[in-house]
Amino acid sequence: MHPYLRPTGSPTPDLDACPRKGDPMGRGDGCPEQTSRTAGNHPRTMKQTIILITLTSLLAACGGADTSEIGVKRAKLEALKATYKTYADSIKEIETWLAENDSTVRRNLPTVTADTVKATSFTHYVDVHGTVRADKAAALFSNGGRVRRIHVSPGDRVRRGDMIISIDNDMAAEQIQQAEAALELARTAFEKQERLWNQKIGSEMQYLQAKSQKEQAEAGLNAMREQQRLTNITAPFDGTVDDIMVRLGDMTTPMQPAARVVDLSSVQLEADVPEGYLRTIRKGAPVVVHFPSVDEHFDATLAHVGEFIDPSNRTFKVTVRVPKNEGYMRPNLLSDINIQDFHSDSALVVPSRAVLQDVNGNNYIYILEPTRDNEAISRKVMVKRVSEYKGRISIVPEKEGGLKGGERIVDEGAKNVTDGLTVRVAN
Question: Which fold has domain 111-121+345-425?
Fold first, then answer.
Protein backbone atom coordinates (compact mmCIF):
# COMPACT_ATOMS: atom_id res chain seq x y z
CA MET A 1 0.00 0.00 0.00
CA HIS A 2 1.31 3.44 -0.91
CA PRO A 3 2.34 5.48 2.16
CA TYR A 4 -0.08 8.24 1.09
CA LEU A 5 -3.02 5.84 1.01
CA ARG A 6 -3.75 4.93 4.61
CA PRO A 7 -6.94 5.04 6.65
CA THR A 8 -7.70 7.78 9.09
CA GLY A 9 -5.81 7.41 12.29
CA SER A 10 -2.79 5.51 10.92
CA PRO A 11 0.61 6.87 11.98
CA THR A 12 2.27 9.20 9.56
CA PRO A 13 5.74 8.13 8.38
CA ASP A 14 8.67 10.41 9.05
CA LEU A 15 9.25 11.79 5.55
CA ASP A 16 11.99 14.10 6.78
CA ALA A 17 14.16 11.05 7.41
CA CYS A 18 13.72 9.77 3.85
CA PRO A 19 16.17 11.02 1.14
CA ARG A 20 13.37 10.89 -1.49
CA LYS A 21 10.59 12.31 0.62
CA GLY A 22 9.41 14.51 -2.24
CA ASP A 23 8.67 11.55 -4.51
CA PRO A 24 4.86 11.07 -4.60
CA MET A 25 5.49 7.52 -5.85
CA GLY A 26 6.87 6.58 -2.47
CA ARG A 27 9.96 5.06 -4.05
CA GLY A 28 12.14 5.38 -0.92
CA ASP A 29 14.95 3.01 -1.73
CA GLY A 30 17.21 5.30 0.28
CA CYS A 31 14.97 5.25 3.41
CA PRO A 32 16.03 2.51 5.87
CA GLU A 33 12.83 2.72 7.85
CA GLN A 34 10.70 2.10 4.81
CA THR A 35 12.94 -0.70 3.60
CA SER A 36 12.78 -2.42 6.96
CA ARG A 37 9.01 -2.11 7.13
CA THR A 38 8.59 -3.52 3.63
CA ALA A 39 10.94 -6.41 4.25
CA GLY A 40 9.77 -7.39 7.75
CA ASN A 41 6.04 -6.76 7.60
CA HIS A 42 3.95 -7.17 4.45
CA PRO A 43 1.78 -4.07 3.76
CA ARG A 44 -1.91 -4.42 4.11
CA THR A 45 -3.84 -5.07 0.93
CA MET A 46 -6.48 -2.61 -0.22
CA LYS A 47 -9.17 -5.08 0.78
CA GLN A 48 -7.83 -5.26 4.31
CA THR A 49 -7.66 -1.47 4.52
CA ILE A 50 -11.26 -1.08 3.41
CA ILE A 51 -12.39 -3.67 5.97
CA LEU A 52 -10.46 -1.88 8.71
CA ILE A 53 -11.99 1.50 7.86
CA THR A 54 -15.44 -0.01 7.61
CA LEU A 55 -15.14 -1.80 11.00
CA THR A 56 -13.83 1.35 12.60
CA SER A 57 -16.76 3.34 11.25
CA LEU A 58 -19.22 0.67 12.34
CA LEU A 59 -17.77 0.59 15.83
CA ALA A 60 -18.05 4.37 15.99
CA ALA A 61 -21.63 4.15 14.77
CA CYS A 62 -22.45 1.54 17.43
CA GLY A 63 -21.60 4.07 20.08
CA GLY A 64 -24.27 6.38 18.71
CA ALA A 65 -27.99 6.40 19.19
CA ASP A 66 -28.98 4.53 15.97
CA THR A 67 -27.95 0.85 16.33
CA SER A 68 -30.63 -0.51 14.06
CA GLU A 69 -29.84 -2.39 10.86
CA ILE A 70 -30.61 0.70 8.79
CA GLY A 71 -28.32 2.81 10.92
CA VAL A 72 -25.50 0.30 10.58
CA LYS A 73 -25.95 0.19 6.79
CA ARG A 74 -25.87 3.97 6.59
CA ALA A 75 -22.71 4.11 8.66
CA LYS A 76 -21.14 1.47 6.43
CA LEU A 77 -22.09 3.47 3.31
CA GLU A 78 -20.50 6.65 4.69
CA ALA A 79 -17.35 4.71 5.55
CA LEU A 80 -17.13 3.31 2.02
CA LYS A 81 -17.62 6.77 0.54
CA ALA A 82 -14.82 8.15 2.67
CA THR A 83 -12.54 5.31 1.61
CA TYR A 84 -13.40 5.82 -2.08
CA LYS A 85 -12.68 9.54 -1.87
CA THR A 86 -9.34 8.92 -0.17
CA TYR A 87 -8.19 6.55 -2.90
CA ALA A 88 -9.67 8.63 -5.74
CA ASP A 89 -7.84 11.77 -4.61
CA SER A 90 -4.58 9.88 -4.27
CA ILE A 91 -4.94 8.22 -7.69
CA LYS A 92 -5.65 11.56 -9.33
CA GLU A 93 -2.63 13.14 -7.63
CA ILE A 94 -0.32 10.35 -8.80
CA GLU A 95 -1.72 10.38 -12.34
CA THR A 96 -1.19 14.14 -12.54
CA TRP A 97 2.39 13.79 -11.36
CA LEU A 98 3.09 11.01 -13.86
CA ALA A 99 1.59 13.02 -16.71
CA GLU A 100 3.88 15.91 -15.92
CA ASN A 101 7.08 13.97 -15.20
CA ASP A 102 6.96 10.55 -16.87
CA SER A 103 7.95 10.85 -20.55
CA THR A 104 6.64 7.33 -21.25
CA VAL A 105 3.08 8.37 -20.44
CA ARG A 106 1.17 9.83 -23.40
CA ARG A 107 -1.41 12.36 -22.29
CA ASN A 108 -4.88 12.15 -23.81
CA LEU A 109 -4.94 15.54 -25.57
CA PRO A 110 -6.97 16.69 -28.60
CA THR A 111 -4.86 16.60 -31.75
CA VAL A 112 -4.83 19.51 -34.20
CA THR A 113 -2.83 20.68 -37.17
CA ALA A 114 -1.23 24.09 -37.30
CA ASP A 115 -0.82 26.77 -39.92
CA THR A 116 0.65 30.26 -39.96
CA VAL A 117 -0.91 33.70 -40.16
CA LYS A 118 0.60 35.03 -43.39
CA ALA A 119 1.20 38.74 -43.90
CA THR A 120 0.86 38.95 -47.68
CA SER A 121 -1.27 40.37 -50.49
CA PHE A 122 -4.82 39.14 -50.99
CA THR A 123 -7.06 39.31 -54.07
CA HIS A 124 -10.71 38.34 -54.41
CA TYR A 125 -12.32 37.42 -57.73
CA VAL A 126 -15.89 36.91 -58.85
CA ASP A 127 -15.98 33.69 -60.89
CA VAL A 128 -18.49 33.52 -63.76
CA HIS A 129 -18.90 31.64 -67.03
CA GLY A 130 -18.81 33.49 -70.35
CA THR A 131 -19.27 32.83 -74.06
CA VAL A 132 -17.56 34.26 -77.12
CA ARG A 133 -19.63 36.62 -79.26
CA ALA A 134 -18.42 37.93 -82.61
CA ASP A 135 -19.31 41.56 -83.21
CA LYS A 136 -20.37 40.59 -86.73
CA ALA A 137 -22.09 37.23 -87.14
CA ALA A 138 -25.18 36.87 -89.31
CA ALA A 139 -27.51 34.02 -90.19
CA LEU A 140 -28.83 34.72 -93.71
CA PHE A 141 -32.43 33.98 -94.79
CA SER A 142 -34.27 34.05 -98.07
CA ASN A 143 -37.81 35.21 -98.76
CA GLY A 144 -38.48 31.88 -100.45
CA GLY A 145 -37.71 30.10 -103.70
CA ARG A 146 -35.65 27.28 -105.13
CA VAL A 147 -31.85 27.31 -104.84
CA ARG A 148 -30.55 27.90 -108.31
CA ARG A 149 -26.84 28.32 -107.57
CA ILE A 150 -24.43 28.34 -104.63
CA HIS A 151 -21.56 30.70 -105.35
CA VAL A 152 -19.25 30.06 -102.35
CA SER A 153 -18.11 27.30 -99.99
CA PRO A 154 -17.68 27.31 -96.18
CA GLY A 155 -14.43 29.05 -95.26
CA ASP A 156 -14.40 31.40 -98.27
CA ARG A 157 -13.76 35.07 -97.67
CA VAL A 158 -16.48 37.38 -99.00
CA ARG A 159 -16.94 41.11 -99.26
CA ARG A 160 -20.07 43.06 -98.58
CA GLY A 161 -22.65 42.59 -101.38
CA ASP A 162 -21.05 39.44 -102.84
CA MET A 163 -23.57 36.87 -104.05
CA ILE A 164 -23.65 33.76 -101.88
CA ILE A 165 -26.77 31.89 -103.06
CA SER A 166 -28.95 32.64 -106.09
CA ILE A 167 -32.64 31.85 -105.67
CA ASP A 168 -34.91 31.06 -108.63
CA ASN A 169 -38.14 33.02 -108.03
CA ASP A 170 -40.23 33.22 -111.20
CA MET A 171 -43.06 35.06 -109.50
CA ALA A 172 -40.78 37.90 -108.46
CA ALA A 173 -39.41 38.16 -112.01
CA GLU A 174 -42.92 38.38 -113.48
CA GLN A 175 -43.94 41.04 -110.95
CA ILE A 176 -40.90 43.08 -111.91
CA GLN A 177 -41.83 42.91 -115.60
CA GLN A 178 -45.32 44.13 -114.78
CA ALA A 179 -43.96 46.94 -112.66
CA GLU A 180 -41.57 48.01 -115.45
CA ALA A 181 -44.46 48.12 -117.96
CA ALA A 182 -46.60 50.16 -115.58
CA LEU A 183 -43.74 52.56 -115.02
CA GLU A 184 -43.20 53.00 -118.76
CA LEU A 185 -46.87 53.88 -119.27
CA ALA A 186 -46.92 56.28 -116.32
CA ARG A 187 -43.74 57.99 -117.54
CA THR A 188 -45.18 58.49 -121.08
CA ALA A 189 -48.46 59.89 -119.74
CA PHE A 190 -46.57 62.28 -117.49
CA GLU A 191 -44.33 63.55 -120.27
CA LYS A 192 -47.34 64.35 -122.48
CA GLN A 193 -49.19 66.05 -119.69
CA GLU A 194 -46.09 68.01 -118.82
CA ARG A 195 -45.79 69.37 -122.39
CA LEU A 196 -49.43 70.38 -122.35
CA TRP A 197 -48.98 72.06 -119.00
CA ASN A 198 -45.99 74.00 -120.28
CA GLN A 199 -48.19 75.19 -123.20
CA LYS A 200 -50.83 76.33 -120.70
CA ILE A 201 -53.13 73.57 -121.90
CA GLY A 202 -55.02 71.47 -119.39
CA SER A 203 -55.60 71.85 -115.71
CA GLU A 204 -53.05 71.73 -112.94
CA MET A 205 -54.86 68.79 -111.39
CA GLN A 206 -54.32 66.68 -114.50
CA TYR A 207 -50.59 67.50 -114.42
CA LEU A 208 -50.22 66.60 -110.72
CA GLN A 209 -52.16 63.40 -111.16
CA ALA A 210 -49.86 62.23 -113.99
CA LYS A 211 -46.79 63.11 -111.95
CA SER A 212 -48.09 61.14 -108.95
CA GLN A 213 -48.80 58.05 -111.03
CA LYS A 214 -45.27 58.10 -112.45
CA GLU A 215 -43.70 58.37 -108.97
CA GLN A 216 -45.88 55.54 -107.66
CA ALA A 217 -44.81 53.31 -110.53
CA GLU A 218 -41.13 54.05 -109.86
CA ALA A 219 -41.54 53.24 -106.16
CA GLY A 220 -43.36 50.00 -106.97
CA LEU A 221 -40.61 48.87 -109.36
CA ASN A 222 -37.90 49.63 -106.78
CA ALA A 223 -39.81 47.62 -104.18
CA MET A 224 -40.06 44.67 -106.56
CA ARG A 225 -36.36 44.78 -107.31
CA GLU A 226 -35.51 44.96 -103.57
CA GLN A 227 -37.74 41.98 -102.96
CA GLN A 228 -35.92 40.07 -105.69
CA ARG A 229 -32.60 41.09 -104.17
CA LEU A 230 -33.74 39.81 -100.79
CA THR A 231 -34.71 36.55 -102.43
CA ASN A 232 -31.07 36.07 -103.39
CA ILE A 233 -28.61 35.79 -100.49
CA THR A 234 -25.66 38.21 -100.41
CA ALA A 235 -22.94 38.99 -97.87
CA PRO A 236 -24.02 41.75 -95.42
CA PHE A 237 -20.39 42.60 -94.47
CA ASP A 238 -16.82 41.55 -95.08
CA GLY A 239 -16.16 38.21 -93.43
CA THR A 240 -15.93 34.46 -93.78
CA VAL A 241 -18.62 32.04 -94.90
CA ASP A 242 -19.06 29.83 -91.85
CA ASP A 243 -21.75 27.47 -93.14
CA ILE A 244 -24.00 26.75 -96.10
CA MET A 245 -27.21 25.13 -94.85
CA VAL A 246 -28.96 24.34 -98.16
CA ARG A 247 -28.16 22.32 -101.28
CA LEU A 248 -28.73 22.97 -104.94
CA GLY A 249 -32.43 22.60 -105.77
CA ASP A 250 -33.68 22.99 -102.16
CA MET A 251 -36.66 25.20 -101.43
CA THR A 252 -35.86 28.06 -99.04
CA THR A 253 -38.26 29.66 -96.55
CA PRO A 254 -38.13 32.86 -94.49
CA MET A 255 -38.13 30.74 -91.32
CA GLN A 256 -34.94 28.74 -91.97
CA PRO A 257 -31.42 30.18 -92.42
CA ALA A 258 -29.61 29.26 -95.62
CA ALA A 259 -26.07 30.46 -94.78
CA ARG A 260 -23.97 32.04 -92.06
CA VAL A 261 -21.23 34.68 -92.35
CA VAL A 262 -18.96 35.74 -89.47
CA ASP A 263 -16.20 38.27 -88.98
CA LEU A 264 -13.76 37.25 -86.21
CA SER A 265 -11.61 40.36 -86.50
CA SER A 266 -13.55 41.81 -83.56
CA VAL A 267 -14.67 39.43 -80.79
CA GLN A 268 -15.84 39.88 -77.22
CA LEU A 269 -16.83 37.74 -74.24
CA GLU A 270 -20.19 38.11 -72.55
CA ALA A 271 -21.09 36.90 -69.05
CA ASP A 272 -23.91 37.29 -66.53
CA VAL A 273 -22.97 38.42 -63.01
CA PRO A 274 -25.29 38.11 -59.94
CA GLU A 275 -26.78 41.41 -58.86
CA GLY A 276 -25.13 41.09 -55.43
CA TYR A 277 -21.83 42.23 -56.99
CA LEU A 278 -23.29 45.37 -58.56
CA ARG A 279 -21.45 47.69 -56.14
CA THR A 280 -18.04 46.01 -56.36
CA ILE A 281 -17.63 45.34 -60.10
CA ARG A 282 -16.58 48.33 -62.17
CA LYS A 283 -15.62 48.97 -65.78
CA GLY A 284 -11.88 48.51 -66.28
CA ALA A 285 -11.51 45.90 -63.52
CA PRO A 286 -8.75 43.32 -64.21
CA VAL A 287 -9.98 39.92 -65.36
CA VAL A 288 -8.39 36.53 -66.03
CA VAL A 289 -9.98 34.50 -68.83
CA HIS A 290 -9.49 30.76 -69.24
CA PHE A 291 -10.83 28.48 -71.98
CA PRO A 292 -10.93 24.96 -70.48
CA SER A 293 -11.69 23.16 -73.77
CA VAL A 294 -8.55 24.49 -75.50
CA ASP A 295 -6.46 25.18 -72.37
CA GLU A 296 -5.79 28.80 -73.30
CA HIS A 297 -5.96 31.93 -71.16
CA PHE A 298 -5.24 35.65 -71.27
CA ASP A 299 -5.51 38.74 -69.06
CA ALA A 300 -7.80 41.63 -69.96
CA THR A 301 -10.08 44.26 -68.42
CA LEU A 302 -13.84 44.71 -68.27
CA ALA A 303 -14.95 46.65 -71.32
CA HIS A 304 -18.55 47.19 -70.26
CA VAL A 305 -20.77 46.71 -67.20
CA GLY A 306 -24.48 46.50 -67.95
CA GLU A 307 -26.99 48.91 -66.46
CA PHE A 308 -29.94 46.52 -66.72
CA ILE A 309 -30.76 43.61 -64.38
CA ASP A 310 -32.41 40.65 -66.06
CA PRO A 311 -35.55 39.89 -64.00
CA SER A 312 -35.51 36.22 -65.01
CA ASN A 313 -32.17 35.38 -63.34
CA ARG A 314 -31.30 38.57 -61.37
CA THR A 315 -28.03 39.18 -63.20
CA PHE A 316 -26.41 42.00 -65.15
CA LYS A 317 -24.22 41.61 -68.22
CA VAL A 318 -20.50 42.33 -68.52
CA THR A 319 -18.28 42.18 -71.60
CA VAL A 320 -14.56 41.60 -72.12
CA ARG A 321 -12.74 42.51 -75.32
CA VAL A 322 -10.68 39.66 -76.75
CA PRO A 323 -7.19 40.38 -78.10
CA LYS A 324 -6.85 40.10 -81.85
CA ASN A 325 -5.08 37.28 -83.70
CA GLU A 326 -6.30 34.59 -81.31
CA GLY A 327 -6.61 31.71 -83.74
CA TYR A 328 -8.60 29.45 -81.39
CA MET A 329 -11.38 31.99 -80.92
CA ARG A 330 -14.82 30.81 -82.07
CA PRO A 331 -18.33 32.15 -81.46
CA ASN A 332 -20.06 30.48 -78.49
CA LEU A 333 -16.78 29.09 -77.11
CA LEU A 334 -17.21 28.68 -73.33
CA SER A 335 -14.84 30.39 -70.91
CA ASP A 336 -14.21 30.87 -67.18
CA ILE A 337 -13.90 34.54 -66.27
CA ASN A 338 -12.37 35.70 -62.95
CA ILE A 339 -13.26 39.34 -62.29
CA GLN A 340 -11.17 41.09 -59.62
CA ASP A 341 -13.34 43.06 -57.20
CA PHE A 342 -11.01 43.35 -54.18
CA HIS A 343 -7.24 43.60 -53.66
CA SER A 344 -5.02 44.41 -50.69
CA ASP A 345 -1.24 44.62 -50.79
CA SER A 346 -0.90 44.03 -47.02
CA ALA A 347 -3.34 41.57 -45.51
CA LEU A 348 -3.40 38.88 -42.83
CA VAL A 349 -4.41 35.63 -44.53
CA VAL A 350 -5.39 32.31 -42.91
CA PRO A 351 -7.18 29.13 -44.08
CA SER A 352 -10.95 29.57 -44.12
CA ARG A 353 -11.55 26.56 -41.85
CA ALA A 354 -9.38 28.15 -39.14
CA VAL A 355 -11.92 30.96 -38.60
CA LEU A 356 -14.80 29.91 -36.35
CA GLN A 357 -17.97 31.69 -35.31
CA ASP A 358 -19.78 31.68 -31.97
CA VAL A 359 -23.53 31.76 -31.37
CA ASN A 360 -23.51 35.56 -31.43
CA GLY A 361 -21.92 35.69 -34.88
CA ASN A 362 -18.48 36.76 -33.61
CA ASN A 363 -15.49 35.37 -35.50
CA TYR A 364 -12.35 34.05 -33.82
CA ILE A 365 -9.23 31.93 -34.30
CA TYR A 366 -6.98 30.01 -31.91
CA ILE A 367 -3.33 31.05 -31.51
CA LEU A 368 -0.96 28.28 -30.42
CA GLU A 369 1.51 29.06 -27.61
CA PRO A 370 4.13 26.24 -27.48
CA THR A 371 4.78 24.55 -24.13
CA ARG A 372 6.90 21.44 -24.68
CA ASP A 373 7.69 19.04 -27.49
CA ASN A 374 4.62 18.97 -29.76
CA GLU A 375 2.17 20.44 -27.26
CA ALA A 376 0.77 23.96 -27.08
CA ILE A 377 -1.87 26.01 -25.30
CA SER A 378 -4.66 27.50 -27.43
CA ARG A 379 -5.56 31.17 -27.03
CA LYS A 380 -8.71 32.66 -28.56
CA VAL A 381 -8.30 35.84 -30.64
CA MET A 382 -11.38 37.66 -31.95
CA VAL A 383 -11.12 38.71 -35.60
CA LYS A 384 -13.17 40.27 -38.38
CA ARG A 385 -13.61 38.79 -41.85
CA VAL A 386 -12.55 41.04 -44.72
CA SER A 387 -12.80 38.83 -47.82
CA GLU A 388 -12.69 35.11 -48.66
CA TYR A 389 -11.64 33.34 -51.85
CA LYS A 390 -10.88 29.68 -52.61
CA GLY A 391 -10.22 28.47 -49.08
CA ARG A 392 -8.26 31.55 -47.96
CA ILE A 393 -9.64 34.42 -45.92
CA SER A 394 -8.34 37.89 -45.14
CA ILE A 395 -8.87 38.90 -41.50
CA VAL A 396 -8.11 41.76 -39.12
CA PRO A 397 -7.95 41.44 -35.30
CA GLU A 398 -10.64 43.22 -33.33
CA LYS A 399 -7.97 44.54 -30.96
CA GLU A 400 -5.26 46.56 -32.65
CA GLY A 401 -1.95 44.73 -32.58
CA GLY A 402 -3.59 41.40 -31.76
CA LEU A 403 -2.02 39.81 -34.85
CA LYS A 404 1.11 40.77 -36.76
CA GLY A 405 1.69 37.77 -39.01
CA GLY A 406 3.77 34.67 -38.43
CA GLU A 407 1.71 33.38 -35.49
CA ARG A 408 0.95 29.66 -35.37
CA ILE A 409 -2.78 28.97 -35.36
CA VAL A 410 -5.06 25.95 -35.13
CA ASP A 411 -6.01 24.77 -38.62
CA GLU A 412 -7.72 21.37 -38.70
CA GLY A 413 -9.47 20.32 -35.52
CA ALA A 414 -10.32 23.84 -34.36
CA LYS A 415 -13.91 22.82 -33.52
CA ASN A 416 -12.63 20.55 -30.73
CA VAL A 417 -10.57 23.29 -29.07
CA THR A 418 -11.47 25.73 -26.31
CA ASP A 419 -9.66 28.78 -24.97
CA GLY A 420 -6.72 27.79 -22.73
CA LEU A 421 -6.84 24.11 -23.69
CA THR A 422 -3.59 22.16 -24.07
CA VAL A 423 -3.47 20.43 -27.46
CA ARG A 424 -1.12 18.18 -29.36
CA VAL A 425 0.11 19.61 -32.68
CA ALA A 426 0.41 16.94 -35.36
CA ASN A 427 2.61 18.91 -37.77
Answer: 2.40.420
